[in-house]
Write a structure and sequence with these properties.
The chain has about 70 residues and is of the alpha+beta class. The chain is built from 2 helices and 3 strands; from the N terminus they run αβαββ. It has a 3-stranded antiparallel β-sheet, with helices on one face. The relative contact order is 0.22.
Length: about 70
């Protein structure tokens, strides 16, 4: 939801995979923190996974600049 406590919630419930709208501010915040990395993106949705051993085999993708949410 983009509120400041979003990361605390992810930690509390041990969320390791996140499906987000590609243009969501929440997604941009996650990418800036580096605890999660982008593994899929299309015009509507992005999939981010926690940067942990279990997901290391998944290739990362670069965020599309034309879909980035402005600051």
């Amino acid at each position: 939801n983009g509120k400041p406590d979003w990361f605390v919630t992810l930690e509390r419930y041990q969320i390791d995979i996140v499906l987000s709208e590609t243009d969501a501010h929440f997604r941009q915040s996650m990418l800036q923190r580096k605890e999660f990395r982008l593994v899929y993106e299309d015009r509507e949705f992005s999939v981010l996974v926690r940067d942990i051993e279990r997901f290391r085999a998944l290739p990362s993708v670069e965020p599309s600049l034309d879909r980035a949410v402005p600051d």
